[in-house]
Amino acid sequence: MAEIVSLAEAIAATVHDGDTVAMEGFTHLIPHAAGHEVIRQRRRGLTLIRMTPDVIYDQLIGAGCAGKLVFSWAGNPGVGSLHRFRDAVENGWPVPLEIEEHSHAGMANRYVAGASGLPFAILRGYRGTSLATQTSGVAEIVCPFTGERLTAVSALRPDVTVIHAQQADRHGNVQFWGITGVQKEAVLAAARSVVTVEEVVGEFTPRPGAVVLPAWTVGFVAVVPGGAHPSYAQGYSSRDNDFYVAWDAISRDRAHFAAWLDQHVYRLTATGEPR
Amino acid sequence: MSYTSDEMMTVTAARVLTDGMTCFVGIGLPSEAANLARATHAPGLVLIYESGTIGAKPTALPLSIGDGILAETADCVVGVPEIFNYWLQPGRIDVGFLGAAQLDRFGNINTTVIGADYADPAVRLPGAGGAPEIAAACREVIVIIRQSLRTFVERVDFVTSVGFGTGPGTRDELGLTGAGPRRVITDLGVLEPDPGTLELTLTGVFPGVSVAAAQDRTGWDLKVSADLAQIAAPTQAELTALRRLRATMPAGPEPAARVPAQPGAPAQPGAGSVPAALPPSEGAA
Which one of B88, B275, B284 has the shortest CB-CB distance to A26? Predict the structure, then answer.
């Protein structure tokens, strides 16, 4: 049953050194504030999973939290490279980063398998690509009914999944809408979960296409208004495109990045006050 | 009316899209082309973004594949597993746009690494996003890429997405259900696969572009169609509509790496993202 706690408490209770952690949100509802709290608590040796490790994982990688990244597209959307990610892959800074790389369809299906309690998922994919030869967790499988050769991808089972949602109610039920991505599957695939929310409401208003996660599927809820920034929460905020553009220059240089991290993460508390 | 090579590429891509088509769109030039077609000759074009927005009707050009305006104007919004499994994989989508950091003579695409050693790449690119399955399952694929000796290579360093593999028969052997890259639009003209060999062949050139110029910027012995077309410059109506659309784009990234001039300047996810260059994917994000 979900407990409603502070962000610092939720992260301390769920994310430990060496854990496998998924933070999901497809452009929309990316749990940036929770990512900052993981950096602030100086977690190390994490295996980070995310379909699109954009700015949020660039920050975690540059801060030295990650030993491995499992992903399908690593870039700053519409802007260019992730410089901290590239520095880690190309130069081992600040620590070497092992990578396990898939396609979006493969990653989405791996979460589905995890949420379904299955060891793998099946799709038409990877065949003929170099990815199939470079990545673990991909194997050919023959359909027992038709003989067709298909691809199996191994399930993802994160120790912890962290997401951001628009609303919880006071029981800890969670509702999010708009672009809902793969968050439902990521939470259901994980052993533990943290959901940051814009607000706690008395009762949910039904919305087309909304996903509801019942309180008993969620570990911890923390109220963090604006917790997706520079991503956004539909109905609450807009995507801060300027920040994504600015990130290119901030992240390009190690010293510039370190200064940014110090000012915007280490010197603040989880609720944004100076410390 | 003068125009840029980006505008020529966008207009050329838009002309290919017909009313009622379903189109898997990435950010940057593909999104501009699809929205230009919708604003002009193809009002019923169905735009599908890998963020799960089906039938999006943005009134302003989005900056990411997950902009709120896409969800707000869509016929429906589905989750990411569903967009790939229920919509893309069964072959429901007519055309998919892909970018590339490298492209070879059989239309195979690299958006992963530059350099022969995957473990120690010269340049790390964003990766696959949605591109491999778009390349496999869309009824046809349009590749948009700037042409140079760095991008048009004899062999790609890494096959992120399969075009025609090693030639006739590859797609059938692999069980790839779509028809593959039927058109490559560059800043010089258009290439299409030879009906027999499936080798990408120059079938059209933009105004003022010579065949020799196209061959000089190709890393293999580029064949030229006997029916080489001279592609018409953008009309005033096309340019006006395109510029009106672009004026709707909020201040922000000049769609960045729209089509990267060279590898190492990746742009967007996804669809994949359009991976390295015009990813369709954020990739989202």
Answer: B284
Measured between CB atoms, which of A55, A79, A179 is closest to B253? A79
Q: If we measure between CA atoms, which residue out of A38, A204, A115, A126 comes closest to residue B81?
A: A115
Structure tokens at A130: 């170099």
Answer whether residue B92 is part of any domain: yes
Query: In the structure encoding, which two tokens stand for residue A92, read together?
Result: 């081992």
| A 96-115 near B (Cβ less than 8 A) | 101-105, 108-109, 111-112
Please report, for chain A, the start and end positions of each structural domain, with discontinuous segments joined by +.
3-102+157-266, 104-154
ipTM score here?
0.95
Instruction: Give the model confidence (pLDDT) of B140-165 as tens digits.
Output: 999 999 999 999 999 999 999 999 99
Q: Assess if CATH 3.40.1080.10 describes domain A3-102+157-266.
A: yes
Number of H helices, E strands in chain A: 9, 13
What whole-number distance in Å separates Cα of residue B93 and Cα of residue B140?
Answer: 9
* H helix runs in A41-122, sequence order: 55-62, 83-91, 104-116
Q: Cα separation of B87 and B108, whole Å?
A: 23
Cβ separation A30–B251 shorter than 8 A: no
